[in-house]
Amino acid sequence: MKSEKGLFKVGDAKRFIRLARKAIEYFNLTGMPYSEKVPKEEYMEKRGVFVTLHSFPNEELRGCIGVPYPIMPLWKAIIEAAMGACRDPRFKAVSNEEMENIIVEISIMTKPEKVDKDNIEKEIEIGKHGLIIKKGSNSGLLLPQVPVEYNWSLETFLEQTCLKAGLFPKAWKANETEVYRFGAQIFKEEKPNGKVIEVKLLKC
């Protein structure tokens, strides 16, 4: 069940991470999307989601792919993101054998909101918001945990998101560039197939 604040509980997250693992295993075996009956109605809510794969125990990134916008049910979005994460084009494909030494992390996103750039320091909070920056056909996204992990300032966070979009670092200041913020509830395994915890981000 969801909590009073409308957030998912660890029990839900265990199901989501198990689903991601099944989706990866099935995709590696068949090349086809995994299918499973949705256990709860609230999992049919349209949500954005990212699946991140890290090696264990050194936690090197092995894949991070998502569905940024709430265009499909969460249950289906997790399957799509998991299949993408194990085939992230930046890295060697993650096999079922390697998954035995992989930590799965899931970030369930809120709907992106356009930011007032004239008031950007009050609009974006490190440790709370992720960013999407768009200019023309270019778009880049960084999850809320990224600036915390690297101890970035807001300025650096904006610049790095621009670079992710294939733009110049200061491109977010241009009139035609749009900046969006979003929140995320983050869950991860402590070890492969291990205990699932909710990640609470510490602000810089």
From TrEMBL:
Show where the AMMECR1 domain sits.
11-198
* A matching Pfam family: AMMECR1
Query: InterPro entries per the record?
Result: AMMECR1 (IPR023473), AMMECR1_dom_sf (IPR036071), AMMECR1_domain (IPR002733), AMMECR1_N (IPR027485), AmmeMemoSam_A (IPR027623), Uncharacterised_MJ0810 (IPR023472)
What name goes with this protein? Protein DRO07_00475
Q: Which organism is it from?
A: Candidatus Iainarchaeum sp
So which domain of life are we looking at?
Archaea
